[in-house]
Amino acid sequence: MEVCYQLPVLPLDRPVPKHVLTRRGAISFSSSSSLFGCPDPRQLSQRRGAISYDSSDQTALYIRMLGDVRVRSRVGFETERRGSHPYLYVDFRILHSRPESVGPVSARKIRRLLSFQRSLHSSRLFRGVLPQNPLYILDDDYTGQAKCMLKKVGSWNFDIFLFDRLTNGNSLVSLTFHLFKHYGLIEIFHLDMVKLRRFLVMVQEDYHSQNPYHNAVHAADVTQAMHCYLKEPKLAKSLTSWDVLLGLLAATTHDLDHPGVNQHFLIKTNHYLATLYKNTSVLENHHWRSAVGLLRESGLFAHLPMEDRLGMERQLGSLILATDISRQNEYLLQFRTHLDREDLCLDDAGHRHFILQMALKCADICNPCRTWELSKQWSEKVTEEFFHQGDIEKKHKLDVSPLCDSQTQTIENIQMGFMTYVVEPLFVEWARFSDTRLSQTMLGYLALNKAGWRGMVQEQASSGDDTDPTLEETDSDILPQESREL
Ligand SMILES: [Zn+2]
């Protein structure tokens, strides 16, 4: 047991509960969030968890959060987060294993399990395991440069990768906190800045940093794009502070605790989340419920009336669920109909909410509308994640999901299909709604990037590599409705 964990931070203010001690190898610990102040002892005791060690499996460390598995509120709304359920058929400890990973034996033996981000972060920190990225050790010069970058946070060319490096890997916290101040949300909603920062740190930590694509940097990128849309003239003059608050919260949390595999994978491996959400918007529901869990845990809006808090949670869910790409056509048709009829009235709260949904959808898949330098990096990251899933599927003799087979797919054909069938139709409609310089810029980059990928396909075809498809084959090869979250 001592191989896995040393326990420098134990909530020693009260005895470990008997039901924890009766577990073999059980210990108690507090989550990293308790470091941000002096929590109510009752909350602390609720956050105790049990860690058990199975000697028959030398690589397994099971952690069960006693208080967080399921929280039932007095009004009957259940949050779902930080479940300690193992995946049923596939051992997900292999999901983020990297052969090149180095470090102490104990660190290598502990594999990340879904939803345990903060536990592992804190355990690594307290065991003295330094982050492997040398850029985590930065001086004030970098902080100053990050602050300087924030002055241009509304620029469409904002380099989120650079910003993430300059902020020590804290782009999501830094950027969102800055935007809350920028929009005056802290004053308007009487937010406690310590609680806000604690909430954002928890959000950032619950993104899986091992995911090549669905990590906190993607969330920060989506939040930055959302900010660009929120300040578009049509929206800026119509949206209320409540709308802005919800838009930013939804962007920040929209992929929370994403496991790095898609819904299709969760369904075919009988994952409990698929059962819980009846195979429908499985990931999006999980992101939403995880966000609600963190909102409640942080107490960020605890001072608001219950009715407002529940309304916020419902609207947050509606926004996050709209990012389910399998429902793209449904939203697009609705958007098109409104635009054809010219009946969108942003004085109407329902219409404003719909526009927020569309803005979030655009922000979520706007990678191909960025500059080539940024767009290409995102394309590489998402392809890496797809192929990683495909490798797991092959290893476990499961059907390889579309777009996930590195032997039959290429980054170029994935991007061409994605741009043609998913991104372009959405951004064309967005430009009809908001015909601004930004919209035209986005469509311009989209066309340029598409031409860039097309050129690479043609180059490969002319070089005689017969494993690469022709452009026509590429377009028809992609299934735009494939449930895939970006
Ligand atoms: Zn996303």
TrEMBL record:
Under Pfam families, the record lists:
PDEase_I
PROSITE patterns associated with the record:
PDEASE_I_1, PDEASE_I_2
Which keywords annotate this record? cAMP, Hydrolase, Metal-binding
Compositional bias annotation for Acidic residues: 465-476
Catalytic residues, chain numbering: H214
**What domain of life is recorded for the organism?**
Eukaryota
Domain (PDEase): residue spans on this chain: 138-460
Reactions catalysed according to its record: 3',5'-cyclic AMP + H2O = AMP + H(+)
Q: Which family does it belong to?
A: Belongs to the cyclic nucleotide phosphodiesterase family. PDE7 subfamily.
Q: Which InterPro entries match?
A: HD/PDEase_dom, PDEase, PDEase_catalytic_dom, PDEase_catalytic_dom_sf, PDEase_CS
- Enumerate the cofactors the protein uses: a divalent metal cation
A GO BP entry is:
signal transduction
Record text on cofactor binding: Binds 2 divalent metal cations per subunit. Site 1 may preferentially bind zinc ions, while site 2 has a preference for magnesium and/or manganese ions.
Which ranges form a coiled coil? none
What's the name of the protein? Phosphodiesterase
Region Disordered, residue ranges: 458-486
Q: Which residues does the annotation say bind AMP?
A: H214, N215, A216, V217, H218, D255, D364, Q415
What are the EC numbers?
A: 3.1.4.-
UniProt pathway annotation: Purine metabolism; 3',5'-cyclic AMP degradation; AMP from 3',5'-cyclic AMP: step 1/1
Residues engaged in binding Zn(2+) 2 = D255
Binding-site list for Zn(2+) 1 = H218, H254, D255, D364
What Gene Ontology molecular-function terms does this entry list? 3',5'-cyclic-AMP phosphodiesterase activity; metal ion binding
Q: Which PANTHER family match?
A: CYCLIC NUCLEOTIDE PHOSPHODIESTERASE (PTHR11347)
